[in-house]
Amino acid sequence: MTVKDDGPEGGERPETEVVHFGRKPFEQHGFVNTPVYRGSTVLYPTLDALHARTQPYTYGRRGTPTTHALEEAITHLAGGAATILTSSGLAAISTAILAFAQGGDHILMVDNIYQPGRAFAEKMLKRLGIETTFYDPHIGGDIDKLFRPNTRLVMVEAPGSQTFEMMDIPAVAAAAHAKNIWVLADNTWATPLFCKPLALGADVSIEAGTKYIVGHADAMLGAVTSNARAAKFLDNAKEALGTCPGSEETYLALRGLRTLAVRLERHQRSGLAVAEWLAARPEVDRVLHPALPSDPGHALWKRDFTGASGLFTIVLNPVSETKLAAFLDGLKFFGMGYSWGGYESLVVPFDPTSYRTATRWHGPGPALRFHVGLEAVDDLLSDLATGFERMKAA
Ligand SMILES: *Cc1c(COP(=O)(O)O)cnc(C)c1O
């Protein structure tokens, strides 16, 4: 855990912050990037020093100058008190929940939560005697009707990373805090540049750094930023669970962070252009993207977010599997695969019907989640147009 230090001043524009936070060139011979510190053992110069444990680094798992740099940068960007890093985004979710919940507790999770997070609750947390209730993302302040005397925390996520429902994080946080319940937010879609859940009332903000922060589909990493009240719980959980990211992965996240603002700006612009083009296609029933004025979540997005990333979903009109395959299999620039946040465009079909419990998913046709990468929009549109021709001919 790195507690916010004096470091850079703060208050600069986000584009400047991602470039300058988390590096101190003149502490490393002037080289601009924080180097990769590999290591487990850290030496103590004297017996006194070993007993005092006051030196900044004590053991590899507890942190290195490389992890410190990334923690510091993310803490500043997210507007928190401290950040812990984990080996993946899912480990960030599980570590954050286990920091607060214990056997006999009840927790609340939004129904459109990242699916492996849901599986963690349904399998592991259940086995530990922690009960989960899933709730409709549109619940708002009515969430207090679901609170029980043993409710420990509420997990929020906006928008959901498959179906893109927005939720009223400040309303949920206010209701939770009135009952001393912790609020944990998965902020991966927006990144700390486009949304700051701690400012909206969450106690903890979770990032799958794997996505936009790493930004190049070449590393796995998670980050959990907390306010001052929650920070000690996160540090204890990280220490108890022994989760830590690899040195190389941490470096790749720091490197990705430097270009995050410029990449996101392009993901946003191209994502909206592709979303608008798709919305006008006869094959498409609807587009789920909160930055589109027609989206039901648009007002909340506008109130709480300063931008949109490149991930959204379209729902097709009813179409056969053969026609869908003709569309997807021949795409040149949209790779088919899970994950997102890298430089390249992706598409993946999904069907949430089998795992949602508090809400119902309505077709009418298959849903496709798009990640719009950094390619030229015109090339992406002509790829999709050709795909729709193949679909029609199949
Ligand atoms: C990918 C993702 C995660 C998990 O991150 P990993 O690094 O893949 O474990 C968590 N939340 C959201 C919203 C994600 O998209």
Describe the protein:
- This protein is α/β, with parallel strands linked by helices and 394 residues long.
- The protein folds into 2 domains: 2-257, Type I PLP-dependent aspartate aminotransferase-like (Major domain) (Aspartate Aminotransferase, domain 2, 3-Layer(aba) Sandwich); 260-393, Aspartate Aminotransferase, domain 1.
- Helix content is 37%, strand content 16%.
- It contains 13 helices and 13 strands.
- It has an 8-stranded mixed sheet, with helices on both faces. The chain has a 5-stranded mixed sheet with strand order 9-10-13-12-11, with helices on one face.
- α4 packs across α8 and α12 packs antiparallel against α13.
- The longest helix has 20 residues, at 260-279.
- The chain is globular, with a radius of gyration of 22 Å.
- The termini are far apart.
- Mean pLDDT is 96; it is low at 2-7.
- Pyridoxal-5'-phosphate (PLP) binds at residues 88-90, 114, 161, 186, 188, 208, 210-211, 220, 222.
- Residues 88-90, 114, 161, 186, 188, 208, 210-211, 220, 222 line the site of pyridoxal-5'-phosphate (PLP).
